[in-house]
Amino acid sequence: MLKPPSCDPLMGGGEDKLLDFSDVDIRLPMFVYVSREKRPGYDHNKKAGAMNALVRSSAVLSNGPFILNLDCDHYIFNCKAVREGMCFMMDQGGENVCYVQFPQRFEGIDPSDRYANHNTVFFDGNMRALDGLQGPVYVGTGCMFRRFALYGFDPPVTDKIKNKTESEGTPLQPSDFDPDLDVNLLPKRFGNSTILAESIIIAEYQGRPLADHPAVKFGRPPGVLRVPRDPLDAATVAEAVSVISCWYEDKTEWGDRVGWIYGSVTEDVVTGYRMHNRGWHSVYCVTKRDAFRGSAPINLTDRLHQVLRWATGSVEIFFSRNNAFLASSRLKLLQRLAYLNVGIYPFTSFFLLAYCFLPALSLFSGHFIVQTLSIKFLVYLLIMTICIIALAILEVKWSGVALEEWWRNEQFWLISGTSAHLYAVVQGLLKVIAGIEISFTLTSKSAGEDNEDIYADLYLVKWSSLMVPPIVIGMVNIIAIGVAFSRTIYSTVPQWSKFVGGAFFSFWVLAHLYPFAKGLMGRRGKTPTIVIVWSGLIAITLSLLWISISPPEDTTAQATAGGGGFQFP
After folding, report:
1. Where is Mn(2+) annotated to bind (predicted)?
2. Which positions make up the binding site for Mn(2+)?
3. Which of 119, 162, 328, 375 is the most exposed, having the fewest neighbouring CB atoms within 10 Å of its CB?
4. Which amino acids are annotated as binding site for UDP-alpha-D-glucose, given as ranges?
């Protein structure tokens, strides 16, 4: 534990021959390593419980008005990012900003980004669009919070609070920001720590915008925080240990209204939703130099399990009181639609599954998806296609996403939609209806055994039941193309236009599954046995289907007489 730094800058010197610190403030911030208590019989609530323990202990030890949240696999890549995030909260009108979300940037991803780990469509497209509404969603890392907002308070009503302080001249109390919060109810909401309760108003005041302009009505004067801090004594440290004990949250509102919210796999989305639902705004901050960087799973199985965990959390949100349908009037309409999409998107897997099988069923049956292609239908189809393409082009140009990145995102959307999202809906329904809890393991970020190849994990094939639906979709479409091709060849009047039209959609499905197929093949020369078995079964099935299809007698007669050949309509 490092002691608190002095309030005056401490400039370094140029004595060091390697580094010159003559113009650098070399003060070190107070550093405290916290390990919360865990005991059998107490639910530690995973990441959300750990973050709440850190919020309480830091309130006792330092009580900084802003909190930076980073996952253990992320690090600061831009030292000025923290200051840029604070500027949004301390600028004019910043008192309504609950958190500043930074985009996630990753290292160690294969150059082709086979499984869309960069997720640029979401971070450079969707999140920037949400920034024009009530703000981006909280994605679990790379986020700077206002401590006062984490305590479950509504945004401050600046005029009311300003008039109260000017007329009475008394210090503000937590009840001034929440009329339903009485002094006697503080232990019920925040626990029985007196130091923690007293730190709430201090954190609120420290986080106010700077009153360096007459237009700032709700702020604090510059330099008011330059007050020397007393060294930590034994009693303060003992209080910090007390607030991170496993029993402290009993019969309090931690995890329900205060801090990170419990009860969901995706506690990050729920926590951000609760803040927006109380009327707070968030900001999306994209710095020229990446603010933070981290690692992501480049292995197919690990990536699918990561998406499965996210999608399961979305299903839990949909069937809980955190559904955006039940939001308050403080949540804006378009922001409500954005949160509705967060809870609904896994259910689109059923429709996506049907769309992937429709081309194959069309080829099997010999009937096109649409029986009669009228001019009216073709006009509607053309208009819809042009609108979808134009919308995609506009989104790509506006967000700056490369066309290859957009295509990778489309491919993995189909792969995850027919596997992880489908399983997530089933698991979510089991939890809601039958009460069966689903356990998840932490996402593995590096499991390759080859230390010389940084992409060794990319070629590692780890079998999972999540792979079954995409494999079945690919097999069915390949077999359907073979059956339709054989039927067309041996038909009396071959209808090649119908075959080409139906096969196009099957090939379109297979094109989306191409990264999945590459992931199954692994490294060259190291193809897993299970892939060889599946390939053999496909080859045998196609061969048997080819032999079992008997050509019509009239076609055989024409071929014998020398009159055979392809007949294009």
Report:
1. 47, 71
2. 47, 71
3. 375
4. 46
